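As noted in the main text, all predictions were made from sequence alone. Below is one such record, for Putative EmrB/QacA subfamily drug resistance transporter.
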Amino acid sequence: MTDFLAYRSTAGRAVIAAAVLGSGMTLLDGTVVNVALKTIGRDLDASLAELQWITNGYLLSLASLILLGGSLGDRYGRKRVFVIGVVWFALASLLCGLAATPLMLILARILQGVGGALVTPGSLSMIQGAFGPRDRATAIGAWSGLGGVAAAIGPFVGGVLIDYASWRWIFLINLPLAVATVVVAHRWVPETRDEESVGRYDVPGATLAAVALAGVTYALIEWGTTLALLAAVVGALACVAFLVVERRTPHPMVPLVLFSSRTFSAANAMTLLVYAALGAVSFFVVLQLQTVSGFSALLAGVAMLPITLSMLFLAARGGRLAVRIGPRLPMTVGPCIVAAGALLLLRIGPDAGYWLDVFPGVTLVGLGLAVLVAPLTATVLAAAPDHNAGIASGINNAVARAGSLLAIAALPVAVGLSGVDYDVPAVFDEAFGRAMVSCAALLVAGGVLSWFTIRNPLAES
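Prediction:
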């Protein structure tokens, strides 16, 4: 395509609408599934390990395939791959809504993650390809802002569906959204692709990444069982094989040369630590609110709203601050603010009130994220050559998902939870305290790592 769309044209607005609808589906799932876990566990008679897999099955396939999904769009057409991803995600959502057993739901969530790996990079790349330089920043800003609104209303919509209809509707609601997305995309969105995209796809790399993450995740969740040690060995071997393949293939999914930059490596290590803590905080807090404090699913979901609102209204200001003073201080202080918020969440107990016991902690978590996220993203992109900016962003996205995946797999076992402990208030309350302290430690470690490894651009020059 040689003619770019105008932002204010009908087709231009349609591109943004399709991108927001598609990414909104994945955002909705990301914000409400944790809220539904307790209800799902009771309805399907699921163990804690099965609840972990319901969350992690999606993250596993998403983290493993998101880079490959972006490459497919560049080669075969961004709209085409995006639409395929939307349809795939919708069909997997239907299977989730119809699941009669925990295993069926876990398998459907894995399939959902495959669709998410096509939709997530596709929504932004459609905008990148459809708009020219003059309108691109405005279009991305509109997409980001409307996506933030979708994330903000997700917990409310999900909580209402869980409390007043059924948890199954948090998945089934994706079907009409998918239909609307496909209709808009088919009618108005132009097809774009990267005409310079060459080479074979790194299918072996994507496969080994999935096996490595699956093996390690299984070992962490099922630790103490017969197959856990075998899974750990398989995961470790797949990880080594992945590094060998990525070093030797001419078109790697993850160009290892990027990690020769200390800044790039450090920023991604910090991402792993911080997003591991954030994933665990989200997993534990909504269960604590429902199991121990007696909140409904609706109230537990809405309780986390200050985090989304802080990101929506303050993240851009955090980015501007980092431009003025450099990324080092925000990437150091931000995680420490989030850590303070995690420790304040220790106030959540059997008689917790929202404004005194929940609001201060989740608000601090949101403020800390608003300080650190934009500088972190900018640092990752600045540390990579311009022609690798998309790959660098994708790697950082995948690292963040992997961090959440591994933390949700490891931390429940580490703090002594098993079986149906998620539904036993006294046991879960005790484990929750240990989990929040562990999350705070991960966050402080991320801040310390940033202080010693991240350098401001002026200092480097």
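The chain has three domains: 1-192, 202-250, 255-461. The chain has 17 helices and no strands. These features were considered when defining construct boundaries for the mutagenesis experiments described in Section 2.9.
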